[in-house]
Amino acid sequence: MSEGRPLLLLFDGNALVHRAFHALPPLSVSRTGEPVNAVYGFALMLLKVLSDYKPAYCAVAFDARGPTFRHKAFEAYKAQRPRMPDELAVQFRRVRELVEAFGIPIFEVEGYEADDLLGALSHQADDQGLEAIIVTGDTDAVQLVTPHIKVLTPRTGRGAFSDTLLYDEVAVRERYGVGPKQIADFKALKGDPSDNIPGVPGIGDKTAAKLIQAFGSVEGIYGHIEEVAPDKLRELLRANEGLARQSKALATIAIDAPASLVTSRCSLGSSGRSRVVALLRELEFYSLLGKLPEAETEPGAPVAGDYRVVDTWEQFENLLADLSAAKSLVIDVETTGRDARRDALVGIALCLAPGRAHYIPMGQVLGGGLPLERALGQLKLVLEDAVEKIAHNGKWDMTVLARYGVNMRNLSFDTMVAAHLLGEKSLGLKPLAFGKLGLEMKPITDLIGTGPRQLTMAQVAVTDAAHYGCADADVTARLKPLFEEELQRDGLWKLFTEVEMPLVPVLFRMEQNGVAIDRGVLREMSQALGEQMLKLEAEIYNTVGHQFNINSPRQLGAVLFDELKLPRAKRTKSGYSTDAAVLEGLKGAHTVIEPLLQYRQVTKLKSTYVDALQELIEPATGRIHTSFDQTGTVTGRLSSSDPNLQNIPIRTEEGRRIRGAFVAQGGWRLLGADYSQIDLRVLAHLSQDPGLMAAFARDEDIHRATASQVFGVPMEKVTPDMRRVAKVVNFGVIYGMSEYGLEQATDLSREEASKFIDAYFERYQGVKAYLERTLAQARECGYVETVLGRRRRIPDLDSHNRQVRAAAERMAVNMPVQGTSADIIKVAMVKLQRRMEELGLKTMMILQVHDELLFEVPQEEMEAMKRLVLEIMPHALELSVPVKVELKEGRNWGEME
After folding, report:
1. Does domain 517-624 have CATH number 1.20.120.1770?
2. Mean pLDDT lowest for which of 5-14, 259-268, 406-415, 684-693?
3. What is the pLDDT of residues 345-399, one digit of tens each?
4. How confident is residue 722, by pLDDT bands cut at 50, 70 and 90?
5. Superfamily for 306-490?
6. Same fold, 306-490 and 517-624
7. Backbone phi, then psi, for 819, in 5-degree steps?
8. pLDDT 10s digits, 751-774
9. Cα-based distances in Å from 56 to 269, 295, 806
10. Can you tell me the distance from the alpha carbon of 126 to that of 6, in angstroms, rounded to the nearest whole number?
11. List of residues 6+ apart from 617 with CB closer than 8 A
12. Which of 259, 608, 811, 829 makes the best surface tag, with the fewest CB within 10 Å?
C-alpha cells in the first residue's frame, strides 16, 4: 500500500456471492431451511479482507436488474449463461442485509454492471488521494489496475478467499503478457467465453498477447495492419475487424459510470455492531462472531451477573448452607486442559439461579484457592445427594470429579444433549449463548492465549477464571428453561427425560469401566505386521525395479502413472491421486497393485489399531477407556472416540485378531448381545409390509425369504448368489439404493439391477408405500422422526440441485429406521443398567458397537446375565415383529461363541 494514503475497499457483490455459492456446500438455517451458504461465504470473505487490510472506507457494488448498455450493443452478451439457481437468487437479499448491517454503502445503477461502478469509484478514489483495492471473485477488473488501484481475487480453483492474489501492474503483466490498460484489447482479440464476447475466431492467448505487445492496442493493430505477419493472421484480422472493435467495446469497463464516491458515507462502522450480531444470530453464523472487527462502542451484550469468588472458609460454609437448601444447581468444572481423565481440577462454578453464580478456586492456582482435598470433601455431600444437577456436557464434569472421589449423582438436565435433540447446528455453550440468548461469551483464548506460550487455567488470575466459570454456569442456567419449553413443544420431552438423560450416567459408567487389554497379543501382532510390511515392501520394490517412498503419494503417483504408464487418475494439488479408490480401480492393470493394496491395509492396521491401542492403555487400570458421544450423529446412534472402538474391522482375519486382544479379567468372561437384523425389523414395523412381517414372524432367513419372493423360486432353491443380491437390496432400501448402487455392489448389469429393484417393490409394496409416505411427510413438515419422536430436519428435499436433492431423500428414508434402531438399544442400555444395579450384580457393561452390547461378567453371574439380557433387550421397544437378540460369550472379543 502507498504510504500516507487511506485505503478504500471496493467489493464486487455479484461476483463474490457467486463465488461463495459454488465454493461452499449447501447450508441452511436449521429452523426454517432457508439456504444461506452464499451468505455465509460472502460474510467469511468480507470479514477476512476487513481483518487483513483494515480499511478506512468500504463500498459494495451490485449488478442492477435488467439489460445493460452492453446488451443493447450486442444482444448475445452473456446469453450463454444458465439461469441463476433459485437457491442462489434468494440469498442476495440476505447479503444486502449483511452489508447494510455493517454500514457499508451499496452502489447499483440501472444499465450498468458492478464492474463499471467499481471502475468509476476506484478512479475517483485515486483522484481523491486514496488507495483502492477491488475485491472480486473474477479477474475482469484487472484492467482497472494503476499504481494506486489494485485487484484482490482468490487464486484459481481455491475456496472462498482462503488463498488470495493481489494484482498490481507487475502481476497483471506477468499473468497476461500485457499491461492493465491493454486487457480490453487482449480480450477483444481472444474473446471472453464467460461473458460471450466473441473476439477474433482462431486467436488465442499467446497470439493476442504478441499482437498487443507489438502494436499496443486494437487500434494500433488496424492502423498498421499491413505489418501483421503471417499473411493468414493478417487476413483473419482484416475479415473480423468489426468483431474485434465491438469486442473491445464490450470488454472495456466504463469508468465514467454514474457513481459518486463520498468518503463520509463509506466510513466502516457508521452503523452499530449490534445489527451485525443480531443478523449473524438469526442466520446461525455463530462461528463468525469471533471474527467481527473490534468496536469501541456498541459491543454485543456480554454475559454478566452477580459472580462471586469463594476463597475463604467462611464464604465456603455460607455457600454450602445455600446449596443444602437448593432444589437444583448448575455445575461447571474448570481444569488445566480438555482431557477429563488426566488434566487437573482448578475450580468449580456453581449457579443457584440465573444471574447468580459462585466460583470455588481449588489447589495451586494463581491468586490462591481453597485446599482441594478438604473443599471437595465437604462439597462431595452436595454433589452426591439427590439435588437435581444441571450442566452442559455433564458427563465430562462427572469424569473429572470421579478422579477425585466425587461421584456426582442425579444429573437431570444437560443443555448440550437438549441442544442436540433440538437439532441445533453447534452444540458449544458459546454459540448457543449467542444464538439462543443473544449473549457474547469470552473465548477461552482471551484468558489462556494460544501457541507455545499458552497458559493453563491454573495460571490465570482467579478473578478472571471465576468470571469465565461463572458465566458458563450462568448461561447454562439461562438456557435450561428455554430448551425445556422447546423440547416439550416439539414432542421430545419424553425422549429427553426417559432415554437421553438416564443414558448419561450409563455411558459415564461404561467409560469408567473400560475394556481390559492383553498387551502381549498386540505386541506380537505388531511384530508380525511389521515383518509382513517388510516382505510387501521388498515385493513392491522388486516389481518396480527400484526403491521409493511407498507412503509418499507424490512418489507413488510418479511411479504408477509416469514410470509404469498406468491409466492416469485424477490430479490433486500435489500430483496424482493414489487413494484407495484409485488403486482398487487399477486392479489387474499391473502386478504391483495387489501388494500395494495389501501394504496399505497392513500399514493401517498396524498404525491405526495395533500400535495406537497400546499407547492408549491407561497404566493405572491396564484398560482402555473410550469416550462415548450421544450427540455426535444426526440419527441418534452413539459414537466412540479416543479411541474409536466401534470401527475395529470385524470381517477380516486381522480384525478378529485385534479384537482378540480385548479380554475379560481373570475369572470373568465377555458376553456379547447383538440385535439381529434390527434395521430390517424396524423397517417391517414402520412399513407394516405383510411379506416382511410374515417372514420375521416365522423366524425365516429374511434374505433367503426376499430372494425367494423376488426371484420367484421356493426357499430351498435359493442359491447363495440369489441370497447375496437380496441381502444387498434389503439393506440398500434403507439407504435409498439406486440401480447404479445395486450394480456396483453385485455382478448384475444396470438393466438386471433395475428389474430386480422393480420386482422387489412389486413384492414388498408396503415398503414402497412407506418410502413414498416418508418423503411426502418430510417435504410437508421439513423433518422426519423415529418411533420415539427423535427428529431430523431435512431442508434440501426440494433443492434444484439433483445430487443435493437425492442425498436429502436418502437421509429422509434412512433416518427413521436407523434412528429407531438407535433408540431401541439406548432404551435397552438404560433398563439393563438399572436392573443390574437393583440386583446388585458385579457385571459391567463395557462397550456398545452399533447393534451390539458387550458385558464383562463374573463366571458365577453368566447365566443370570443371559436371562436378564433376553428379558430386557428384545422388549426394550415393542415392535410389530419379534425382536431377536443373539448371545455369544468367550474369554476375548475375537473368539466368542
Report:
1. no
2. 259-268
3. 999 999 999 999 999 999 877 777 889 999 999 999 999 998 999 999 999 999 9
4. confident
5. Ribonuclease H-like superfamily/Ribonuclease H (3.30.420.10)
6. no
7. -65, -40
8. 888 888 888 888 889 999 999 999
9. 10, 14, 46
10. 10
11. 517, 519, 623, 624
12. 608
3-state secondary structure of 59: strand
What pLDDT, in 10s, does the model give residues 303-358? 788 999 999 999 999 999 999 889 999 999 999 998 999 999 999 999 999 999 99
Q: Which residues contact 417 (CB under 8 A, 6 or more apart)?
A: 496, 500, 501, 504, 630, 631
DSSP class of residue 875 equals: G
Distance CA 761, CA 730 (A): 11
Average pLDDT over residues 15-31: 84
What pLDDT is stored for residue 742 in this prediction? 77
DSSP-derived letter for residue 257 is -
Q: What is the DSSP string of 598-613?
A: HHHHHHHIIIIIIIHH
For the chain, what are the domain ranges?
7-177+254-265, 306-490, 517-624, 692-763
Dist. CA 823–CA 370, nearest whole Å? 44
Question: Helix or strand or coil: residue 833?
Answer: helix
Report the chain's C-alpha Rg in angstroms: 33
- 597-601 mean pLDDT: 92
pLDDT reported for residue 294: 61
Using CA atoms of 423, 425, 427, 432 in order, give the dihedral in degrees to the nearest 10. Answer: -100
Give the number of other Cβ atoms within 10 Å of residue 5's Cβ. Answer: 16
Residue 845: φ, ψ to 5°: -80, 125
Q: Do the Cβ atoms of 334 and 469 come closer than 8 Å?
A: yes
